[in-house]
Design a protein that fits this description.
The longest helix is centred in the N-terminal third of the chain and has 28 residues. With 290 residues, the chain is of the alpha/beta class. 42% of the residues lie in helices and 28% in strands.
Length: 290
């Protein structure tokens, strides 16, 4: 078994098409087919199911792909470690993050860290919590910035922030002059919310349950920016993290009792981090104001 065979197999799995994989790899299709056939013969299993002109991973293929991705991640890590040894203070950090953190927290962390370590490069990936976790396990990410689940036996989390949510009201709203309000006072308002599956939606739903509220949700979106924009347009109210400097057309009012979510950096304890990623992990908790 050769590394080229593993790379070919991974590309076929990604495209699910032999012709497309051959073009992406700059190899002939017959040569790619022979490589796959030799790999399947060596392993003694069928890695793909043939579906017309397309291919679909078999159960054995899905299992093998996980191992191949782990090998690829180790090779990338090895290259990065050698590069760091040759040029201390350099390196690449592959960091995944929730979209709701891309507005302020993520840019603040990256900017502050690069002021200290200007030669460090970041590869950033925005995604949902489940997607980020899968990419961390597959080796595509070194670290993820997310809201940790109650139980996760594979991923370890280091808390960096307890983020407070506020009520977002349109300018001119009847409660916009208040310094603080309860969720009960928003009963009857039309809420703008993130879609189910978003971590902020989980926090919102939990806060409503704790207050005994059944909110009237008028809009759902995948985008925090869209929700903020709809609030500014006067389409309803929302419960989201405060934004430094605020947003034109929106008033942020503190909520009592406080509604918060934990933000943490996740990593695989069983996988050795590059020196750059380890330094970032060690630094980040102290870099965010309490």
């Amino acid at each position: 078994m050769e590394l080229s065979q593993l790379r070919y197999f991974a590309e076929i799995a990604r495209t699910e098409n032999m012709s497309q994989a051959a073009r992406n790899l700059y190899v002939s299709q017959p040569g790619l087919s022979r490589s796959l056939a030799a790999l399947e013969e060596e392993l003694g299993v069928e890695l793909f199911l043939r579906r017309g002109r397309g291919l679909q991973l078999s159960a054995a293929g899905r299992t093998f792909l996980q191992s191949v991705q782990a090998v690829e991640a180790l090779l990338v890590q090895a290259k990065e470690s050698l590069a760091e040894d040759a040029a201390p203070g350099t390196g690449l950090i592959r960091l995944g993050y929730l979209g709701s953190l891309g507005w302020d927290l993520l840019p603040q962390l990256v900017h502050s860290y690069r002021q200290r370590h200007p030669q460090i490069r970041f590869q950033l990936l925005e995604g949902a919590a489940g997607e980020l976790r899968d990419r961390l396990e597959s080796g595509e990410l070194d670290l993820l910035l997310s809201m940790p689940p109650l139980v996760d036996h594979a991923v370890q989390y280091t808390k960096i922030l307890e983020q407070t949510l506020v009520a977002l009201l349109p300018t001119g709203h009847r409660l916009a002059r208040r310094k603080r309000l309860s969720l009960e006072e928003l009963l009857g308002e039309e809420f703008l919310a993130l879609r189910q599956g978003n971590t902020l939606r989980e926090v919102f739903d939990g806060a409503c349950r704790s207050s005994g509220l059944s909110p009237r949700i008028g809009f759902e979106s995948d985008s925090v920016a869209t929700v903020r924009g709809l609030v500014a347009a006067g389409e309803g109210v929302a419960l989201l993290p405060a934004v430094e400097g605020g947003l034109q057309g929106v008033v942020e009012v503190a909520v009592t009792p406080a509604v918060t979510r934990t933000i943490a950096i996740g990593y695989l304890a069983e996988r050795r981090l590059s020196q750059a990623a380890q330094d970032f992990l060690d630094w980040a908790p102290s870099a965010v104001p309490a």
